């Protein structure tokens, strides 16, 4: 049995708490805004709610990974690391989907902000199905690359006690490439959106309420990804701070970012309308049909 330090338990408990909070908030968001208020009918929120759906299952996988990894380290003969790895893999599928989805949302928000009338005119004719299928394929690609191209097999070779150690170099390279793709897209278009919103604020221009809320939700995602995921990863990889023995620090920070996003989204969605729509457009333009 491995003796785990206090720091490990602190980070693990924090990770479980913030992840459970994230899942609870996301379930509340879907129940209230997707099922009760039917907000999913509005173009602005369709992919955002899909991202919330992915966050629920990513969070479930995260909680399973945090709990299972602790039992694996303490009682490996009862809970082998294969169980922990499968929980991590399950969460990774939805993490990959929500990350590409967040990048797509950032691109969509930029288009909607720069040319709202043209965007809604053409967007209503664009089915969500091809985009959803692409997002689902990014999650499926995790298994295809891992078990197909990288020839990964279970059970795991004894010795590894974390997800990163167990994955083969082939898959690590693939994960790094996809992270650069969706991370750079999200960061670039979030920066463009931020500058555009600053210009609109400087000019004191009015922005339609749903557009404003969707923009802020997208910006929150981009900012939290940078603060809670990308920057810590760069710092830890450069060995500026040694977190060896501190437990799943990167995962805890990532889930903390998701909790912040969920809290901000609940706060934004509960706000009353205070702005005036600058241009009139028919409901058929605003709503999208699958």
Question: What's the arrangement of secondary structure elements?
Answer:
Layout: H1 6-36, H2 43-74, H3 81-114, H4 116-123, H5 129-149, H6 163-166, H7 169-202, H8 209-237, H9 249-270, H10 283-286
Helix pairs in contact: 1-2, 1-9, 2-3, 2-9, 3-4, 3-5, 3-7, 3-8, 5-7, 7-8, 8-9
CATH superfamily (homologous) name: Rhodopsin 7-helix transmembrane proteins
Could you give the distance between the termini? Answer: 53 Å
Ranges where pLDDT stays below 50 over 5 or more residues in a row are: 273-290
Write down the overall mean pLDDT.
85
How are helices and strands ordered from N to C? HHHHHHHHHH
Helix content: over 70%
Counting DSSP H or I runs of 4 or more residues, the number of helices is 10
- CATH topology: the name is Rhopdopsin 7-helix transmembrane proteins
Radius of gyration: 20 Å
Strand content: under 5%
Structural class: mainly alpha
Whole-number tally of structural domains: 1
Shape: globular
CATH architecture title: Up-down Bundle
């Amino acid at each position: 049995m491995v003796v785990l330090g206090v720091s490990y338990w602190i980070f693990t408990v924090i990770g479980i708490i913030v992840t459970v909070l994230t899942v609870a908030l996301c379930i509340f968001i879907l129940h209230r805004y997707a099922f009760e208020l039917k907000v999913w009918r509005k173009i602005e929120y369709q992919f955002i709610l899909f991202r919330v759906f992915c966050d629920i299952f990513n969070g479930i996988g995260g909680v399973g990974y945090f709990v299972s990894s602790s039992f694996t380290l303490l009682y490996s003969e009862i809970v082998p690391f294969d169980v922990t790895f499968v929980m991590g893999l399950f969460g990774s599928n939805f993490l990959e989907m929500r990350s590409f989805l967040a990048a797509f949302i950032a691109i969509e928000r930029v288009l909607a902000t720069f040319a709202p009338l043209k965007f809604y005119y053409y967007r209503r004719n664009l089915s969500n199905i091809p985009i959803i299928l692409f997002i689902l394929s990014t999650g499926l690609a995790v298994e295809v690359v891992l078990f197909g191209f990288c020839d990964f097999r279970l059970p795991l070779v004894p010795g590894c006690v974390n997800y990163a150690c167990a994955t083969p170099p082939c898959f690590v390279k693939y994960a790094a490439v996809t992270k650069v793709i969706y991370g750079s897209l999200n960061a670039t278009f979030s920066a463009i959106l931020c500058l555009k919103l600053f210009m609109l604020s400087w000019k004191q221009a009015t922005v339609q309420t749903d557009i404003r809320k969707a923009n802020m939700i997208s910006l929150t995602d981009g900012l939290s990804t940078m603060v809670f995921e990308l920057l810590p990863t760069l710092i830890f990889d450069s060995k500026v701070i040694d977190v060896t023995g501190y437990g799943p620090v990167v995962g805890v920070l990532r889930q903390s970012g998701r909790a912040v996003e969920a809290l901000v989204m609940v706060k934004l969605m509960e706000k009353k309308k205070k702005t005036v729509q600058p241009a009139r457009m028919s409901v058929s333009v605003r709503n999208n049909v699958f």
